[in-house]
Structures are given as structure tokens and as C-alpha cells.
């Protein structure tokens, strides 16, 4: 995954239950969108696909090429890492019960648990991490008996519950940003992303929301830098909100589907595209994209989902009748089922799922 080289600044805008609670913004309600993904209401037909297929193909290309989802998710990953690094940990149980710890290895017979507090601005004095950031002494390992590390300074925020505002200065279009030793001082001309995140016991809530203001960033055409085949110049300007799911704190964010709602303008190599759309992505899957297709009035009353590289089908649709394959390139939708063998008539994606039989594709409709 491409990493960021610009500044992430975290500001507490409110703590629930305190005099600052009025400063805590209200997170958007994304539940209607989540419900629409879970319960599509439209029965997709050839007439419907004939109307929306070209738009789906264009939208998918714009989302995948721009990688705005990766830019924003990387900000969230960086913030979560910063919060984790700023959280003191102590041994719970075992021989070192109550002592500062960095991980489970420091707590034989016990566990290394977060206190829930946050410590910002702490710095190691001495040890192997001299000058590095720290939340407690365990982050400053000794470098022998004559060079003991300690964590000094910092501001402690006890078990915060409220919201934080994150300002991220975008990396811009300078291709040297991928070089080792690049000066990553922030440049306001590159635009920014401002996000609000709820915070509960030093962990981020599942809903994140905010705006991007002419955020400029590079998208490598291949690999992780611009050396092989160059980069495309991308940008985003507009509103964004996303839902990370109920269990995201315990899961690798790169492995789970994240739901986006965006309304703004995507820029890509000089072209601009307006977008008012919800989609889901999985960073670990190339083209792991699911788009919510809303054809009703009012909004979210008539929906179905179109997905790419999802559930082993390559492309497909989830509508009111279930899940089936589809191909925008071939202008047809289809089912796959085992023909012959022990699983005769059972849905399949590949021949291996049909012992002593084959996985046969049957056309449902075309347009």
C-alpha cells in the first residue's frame, strides 16, 4: 500500500460529558445506505441494465482510477496508528502486573492492555529509541545498563470519549515524494482532507466524515512509485463519509469492506467528473468494488448492487431475487450451476465446485 508523506494533525474538538460537548459534531446517519446494500429491492431486467450499464462502467473506472478511497483510508490508518502509539499500556496479571508494557512479551502470565488514556508529545530520553515518540517507559527500551530509556513530557488525555478533527495536508503531484529522504513538509497548495472521527476509550468509531478541499495526490500507474510507468495526477474536492463496519477495530482495515458516500468532483489527468455515489471497496482485492445503484425517487427506495471481483464471480449483481453473474463487456447476465456429478443443479463459480461435473453458465438476459 502506498504510504503518505504529508502532515496529519489531530485536534480534540470535544469530550462528551464536559463543558466542550457542544463542540462535538453529530456523525451522519449512514444506516439507510447500509440497509440498501443489505436489502436490494429492484428485480434487475434487460431494460434496466440497458439504461444503467454504461453509467456503471464509467463510474467504476472513475472510482478505481482515482483511488480516492485509498487516499482517505490511509489517513484513517495513520490516525489509528498514531492513537495506538499514544496509548499507554500496562500488564494485567502475571509476574509484571501493573508494570508498563509494549506488548504481550513484557507480561509473562498476563496480558498487555491499553489504559484508555492518550499521551501526546511524549519523547524518549536515552535507550534504543532516544528522541522517539512514546506513551510510557515501555516505548523507550534500555540500551544496556548505562543507557536507560525513559518517556518524558507529553500531555495526557484521560480515557477520552468525544470526537477529534483530523487535518491532512495532501501530498501533491511532485513525483519525488516516492523517493527516500523526500522533504515531506506540508504545502497548502496541495489541498487538504479534514475529517471528523468519534473517539471512545482511545479507539475510533466506525463512522468517519468530512470534506476534501482540492486534495491533490499521485496514483502510480504500476507498482508503488512512478519510476516504472509514471503516475496519474488525481484530485478530489467535496464531501465524504464512510462506515468501517461493526468489527473494524479488531480487523485489518485492508481486509474488510468499507462503505463510502461521496459527493464532489474527482479530477484525473486533467479531466473532472462529478460524483454523487455510494460504493464499497476492499483494499486487499484489486477491483474489489461494489456500487450501490439507486434508480428510485425518492432516493434509496429502489436499489440493487453491482460488484466487481466479488464472491468469486468476477462481476455480478445482487438484487431482490439473489446474486447472479453479469458482464458489462458482453452485455449479458447469467447464472452458473453444476451440470452432472454430486452437486448437479447447485450454484457454482468454477468447475472444482462440481465434482464429477462441470460449472455451466446459462444466460438470464442480455441487453
Please give a structural write-up:
- Helix content is 13%, strand content 38%.
- The protein is mainly beta and 367 residues long.
- The protein folds into three domains: 8-67 and 168-318, no CATH class; 84-157, no CATH class; 330-367, no CATH class.
- A hairpin with a 2-residue loop joins strand 9 (192-200) and strand 10.
- The longest helix has 21 residues, at 46-66.
- The chain is globular.
- The relative contact order is 0.15.
**Helix proportion range:** 10-25%
Parts with pLDDT < 50 across at least 5 consecutive residues: 1-5, 15-21
Quick one: overall form?
Answer: globular
Count of all domains: 3
State the major sheet. Answer: 13 strands, antiparallel
- Side by side, the strands of the main sheet go 1-8-9-10-11-12-13-14-15-16-17-18-19
Rg for CA atoms: 24 Å
The helix/strand series, from N terminus to C terminus, equals EHHHEEEEEEEEEEEEEEEEEE
- Please give the alpha-carbon distance between the first and last residues: 38 Å
Please work out how many helical segments DSSP would assign: 3
Q: Average pLDDT, to the nearest integer?
A: 88
Count of extended strands: 19
The percent range for strand residues is: 35-45%
Structural class: mainly beta
Amino acid at each position: 500500500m502506498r504510504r503518505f508523506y504529508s502532515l496529519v494533525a489531530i485536534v480534540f474538538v470535544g469530550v462528551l460529558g464536559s463543558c466542550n460537548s457542544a463542540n462535538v459534531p453529530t456523525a451522519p446517519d449512514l444506516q439507510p445506505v447500509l440497509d440498501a446494500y443489505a436489502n436490494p429491492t429492484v428485480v434487475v431486467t434487460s431494460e434496466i441494465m440497458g439504461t444503467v450499464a454504461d453509467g456503471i462502467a464509467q463510474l467504476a473506472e472513475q472510482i478505481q482510477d482515482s483511488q480516492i478511497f485509498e487516499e482517505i483510508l490511509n489517513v484513517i490508518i495513520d490516525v489509528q496508528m498514531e492513537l495506538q502509539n499514544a496509548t499507554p499500556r500496562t500488564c494485567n496479571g502475571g509476574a509484571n502486573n501493573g508494570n508498563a508494557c509494549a506488548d504481550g512479551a513484557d507480561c509473562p502470565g498476563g496480558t498487555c492492555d491499553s489504559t484508555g488514556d492518550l499521551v501526546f508529545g511524549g519523547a524518549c530520553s536515552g535507550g534504543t529509541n532516544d528522541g522517539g515518540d512514546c506513551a510510557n517507559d515501555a516505548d523507550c527500551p534500555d540500551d544496556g545498563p548505562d543507557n536507560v530509556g525513559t518517556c518524558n513530557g507529553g500531555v495526557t488525555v484521560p480515557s477520552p470519549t468525544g470526537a477529534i478533527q483530523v487535518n491532512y495536508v495532501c501530498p501533491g503531484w511532485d513525483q519525488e515524494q516516492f523517493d527516500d529522504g523526500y522533504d515531506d513538509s506540508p504545502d497548502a497548495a496541495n489541498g487538504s482532507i479534514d475529517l471528523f472521527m468519534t473517539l471512545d476509550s482511545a479507539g475510533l468509531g466506525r463512522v468517519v466524515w468530512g470534506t476534501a478541499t482540492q486534495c491533490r495526490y499521485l496514483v502510480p500507474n504500476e507498482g508503488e512509485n512512478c519510476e516504472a510507468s509514471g503516475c496519474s495526477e488525481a484530485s478530489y474536492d467535496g464531501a465524504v463519509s464512510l462506515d468501517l463496519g461493526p468489527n473494524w477495530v479488531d480487523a485489518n482495515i485492508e481486509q474488510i469492506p468499507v462503505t463510502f458516500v461521496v459527493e464532489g468532483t474527482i479530477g484525473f489527468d486533467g479531466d473532472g467528473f462529478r460524483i454523487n455515489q455510494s460504493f464499497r471497496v476492499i483494499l486487499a482485492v484489486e477491483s474489489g468494488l461494489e456500487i450501490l445503484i439507486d434508480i428510485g425517487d425518492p432516493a434509496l427506495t429502489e436499489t440493487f448492487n453491482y460488484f466487481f471481483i466479488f464472491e468469486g464471480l468476477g462481476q455480478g449483481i445482487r438484487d431482490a431475487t439473489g446474486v447472479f453473474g453479469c458482464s458489462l463487456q458482453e452485455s449479458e447476465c447469467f447464472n452458473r450451476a453444476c451440470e452432472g456429478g454430486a452437486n448437479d443443479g447447485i450454484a457454482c463459480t468454477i468447475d472444482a465446485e462440481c465434482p464429477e461435473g462441470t460449472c455451466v453458465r446459462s444466460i438470464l438476459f442480455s441487453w
